[in-house]
Amino acid sequence: MTALTDLTVAQIRDGFRAGDFSARDVAQAFNANVAAAGALNAFIVETPELALAAADQADKDRAAGTLKPLSGVPLGMKDLFCTQGVQTSAASHMLEGFKPTYESFVSQKLWDAGAGMLGKLNLDEFAMGSSNETSYFGTVVSPWRRAGGDNAPLAAGGSSGGSAAAISARLCPAATGTDTGGSIRQPAAFTGITGIKPTYGRCSRWGIIAFASSLDQAGAMAHDVRDCAIMLENMAGFDPRDATSLEQPVPQWEAGLSSNLKGKKVGVPVDYRVDGLDADVARVWDAGIAWLEDAGAEVVEITLPHSKYALPAYYIIAPAEASSNLARYDGVRYGLRDLPDGANLQEMYAATRAAGFGPEVKRRIIIGTYVLSAGFYDAYYTQAQKVRTLIAQDFARAFEQCDVILAPTTPSATFALGENSSDPLAMYLNDVFAVPASLAGLPAMSVPGGISKDGLPLGLQIIGPAFDEQTVLNAGLAIEERAGFTARPGQWW
Amino acid sequence: MTDYRIQGATGDWEVVIGLEVHAQIVSQAKLFSGAATAFGAEPNTQVSLVDAAMPGMLPVPNMECVRQAVRTGVAINAQINKWSRFDRKNYFYADLPQGYQISQLYHPIVGEGVLTIEADEKAGIPQDKDIGIERIHIEQDAGKLMHDQHPTRSYVDLNRSGVALMEIVSRPDMRSPAETGAYLRKLRTILRYVGSCDGNMEEGSMRADVNVSVRKPGEPFGTRTETKNVNSVRFVMQTIEYEAQRQVDVLESGGRIVQETRLFNPDTGTTHSMRSKEDAHDYRYFPDPDLLPLELDDAFVEACRASLPELPDAKRRRYEAVLGLSAYNAQVLTAEAETARWFEALLAESARVQKKSEADVAKASANWLLSELYGALNRLGKSLEDSPVGPQRGAELLGLVADGTISGTIAKQVFEIMLETGEAPADIVEARGLKQTSDTGAIEAVVAKILADNGDKVAQYKAGKEALFGFFVGQTMKAMQGKANPQMVNELLKKALG
Q1: Mean per-residue pLDDT for B12-20?
Q2: Interface contact A207-B56, CB threshold 8 A
Q3: Residue A255 lies in a domain
Q4: Cα separations in angstroms, B77 against A350, B111, B134, B190
Q5: Residue A107 annotated to the active site
Q6: Would you say residue A44 lies in a domain?
Q7: A interface test, pick of B284, B288, B292 with most A CB neighbours within 10 Å
Q8: Is the pLDDT of residue B25 over 60?
């Protein structure tokens, strides 16, 4: 029999309903895996008791015939979502020990749907990073190892590195993520799992610790496309407490899944096929194109000419917003306070923020402060916003010619921990393919497409027009069915 | 006309003044959170998670505050911007939990408007004058630091944090403390009429930043200073007087005015420097990414327009043209929304009681309110809001005079009793036998007696000293304890004196 921890969300849900196992069995199995995986450092806080409590409730509900959509399913929660009474740190020393008195919209929806929480997942500090090396609570180690003896610990990606590592290592069947400039898709690609960032506004940002408000969007990470659809259905929805929340009904994405792409056009952006594109990445991309054709889609070439400016624009806009969003961490009301003897208010701010923020967060606050300052605002921020508009227009034009876009998720497979950490620009390049969809607020997903010559997963990215997560999911499903991606990391931890 | 001038050693100086008025918007809840806004609550009892800037909390615009700003804009005939946007003004301070204030720098909700101040000869305003209003934008108020609670620590009260303000920015169109005072009073009047701000400067719900510069008449504007948070009309005027004189002194002694922020000291009536432009903050304004642009449709703006009451200028014109009141009375009755409301209630009741048109009862009503009622309230130290006599009782009293039941003199007595006891005027008249007599026989008898007792005066009258007629009237009224119908007394006396 398959181990319970190898099951997908849909399989757990359905097997639990069918009486094949109890919710408690499932929770215990995952709790055991979590407890045994300290070497991965995927969790900042483990909450086995909460997983068990939800499981016991699910077992009661099953007996009473009052099952909910996610009854019996335990989940991991990225530690950027505020969870009532459970430390919510954003992986920052600044918020170490902070226990919110409130529950984020998204996590509350999941609990209301019957899911339980296995723990709070590690991430880059304030979601700033692409390798999960900036966490105050330590680096997440990918469960993957290169084939051929190189035992160097690898990056799980970031910022949702804890989520990716935990799913890949079977510590949870699915998890929440957030994506500001690739933070769901890139770690999903690095760890051979599936992750979707929906249209900006689908998931309320209420109760999610802000990085860059105009880009931040919660999404789902899981083993496969169906699980992403299930998760997203139970995370999305209008929330009057978020002024940017979409006032639209949540589609039944799971019921709408179909890998038949007859009549659909898939756009392949020629601009992304840059000189020096990694051969493995190019090979998997070509395979993806063939799979979608096989599923009935027509392939068309499109251009996204302003995508090459996306990364610089992103690294102006996101830090600008972050520099302001993170101003509230001042030591006055909650979180860390560093008050040297005889310090005045300004000195307390300086000491608190110097001690509370890590180097990457400081770097982005400084960049953001600089680009917003008098005399530089127009040259940087205004210019970047114009680029953002042009990028959105690129996509709008492209979607006149196609229904969905296929591109690589990342320019390469994952890398060794420490390899890029001294070179921020090299690190930022990880998100070169992911950032354009973020700037345009479009739904985008990464599905496993194949394996690199080193035996590491590579992702394929599918980008859709606003509000059309269904087509994105369906194209993802078509790839999933044809890619036959069964590789999984061997358990070394 | 004499222009307001500062006399300096080098000649006359003209003063140029602009005001930025911060007016707290009347609303049950704050601008971006559901928290309540009552004044004077215990510290930190009106603070939501949003106001305290807890992690993950988001602002959502309170459309009631938006509505109030639009109504105010319509009331000053301003352009309403159907597309506006919120910006963040970034700075660190302990009373600002978010580390930024949400305001509107680039695209305010209300554009150019105008406010007319009335001529006031005595104050040196020879004719009505239009003061331009550049913009009104909405923004969050900050919390309050309390330095007097502990010897070495400061406390923070966030009750006010996030409360909605309108910042009403005038053009530099004012030229004297009197004009500025008139502008501020007029603005307060309009805000109170509209109901968008209670105008209460003592409680801080309205405060002004005063921009002052001086120049030789005809020359370009001088460098201005900005005196922050002045919280009464009188202090604003004092600020201008002091600042203008200070600037003239600096300039005439060869100095130069520094563009700076200053503070007014109410104890000394002087201002002092707070910070200069050189160490001014870089606020790093940028559009608030948590909020979408504010888009209003025509229906919303029209509903705001339709919801406005008759405004003071229109009301004043109507009181003069339709009700036939004097310009002075019309001005006084419309200067405060509460006065006009009271007067109109009195007017409606009087018209009903007397079965006449409002125009027919307007003068008597206005006169009684402004002389009798105001006199009494002044004496009692009360305001119209807590007057012991309401509009209905007032109208009943005026009705008794109009229909001849009592004389004007008796009415004064009755009113005094009303103030004390709150009884209905008709009951007072009845119980105390104050009813005016129109009994010809009774009055004739008294007249005959008075004339008989004063034979010498009758002779003088008949000899041509007609001024004595008033004496006979007085004697007759006195003998009848004021209750005789004065008109009949006149007639019967004339007849008797032949």
Answers
A1: 97
A2: yes
A3: yes
A4: 47, 10, 12, 12
A5: no
A6: yes
A7: B284
A8: yes
Q: Which residue's structure tokens are 């007067």?
A: B343
Q: Give CA separation, B374 vs B145, B334, B377, B393, B423, in Å.
A: 41, 15, 5, 15, 19
Q: Per mean pLDDT, which range of A406-415, B210-219, B334-343, B448-457 is the poorest?
A: B448-457
Name which residue leads in pLDDT, A310 or B498.
Answer: A310
Chain B hits for A240, CB-CB cut-off 8 Å, are 60
A83, A117 Cβ separation under 8 angstroms: yes
B101-122 average pLDDT score? 95
User: Which structural domains are found in chain B, ordered by start?
Assistant: 6-303 (no CATH), 310-431 (no CATH), 440-497 (1.10.10.410)
Q: Is the pLDDT of residue A379 over 80?
A: yes
Cβ-nearest to A242 among B54, B58, B90: B58
A100, A210, A345 ranked by CB distance to B94: nearest: A345
Of B490 and B425, the structure prediction assigns the larger pLDDT to B425
Give Cα B450 to chain centroid, integer Å.
52
Which element (helix H / strand E) includes A407? strand A404-408
Residue B276 reports pLDDT greater than 80: no
How near does any CA of chain B get to the CA of A217, in Å? 12
Of all residues in chain B, the one with the smallest CA distance to A317 is B289
What is the pTM assigned to this prediction?
0.90
In whole angstroms, give the CA distance from residue B257 to residue B259.
6
**Domain of A219?**
4-259
Domains contained in chain A, number: 1
Task: Point out the catalytic residue in the list A104, A159, A160, A204.
Answer: A159
Q: Which of A95, A330, A381 sits opposite B99 (nearest CB)?
A: A330
Q: Is the peptide bond before A183 cis (omega within 30 degrees of 0)?
A: no
Q: Which residues of B touch A345 (CB under 8 A)?
A: 93-94
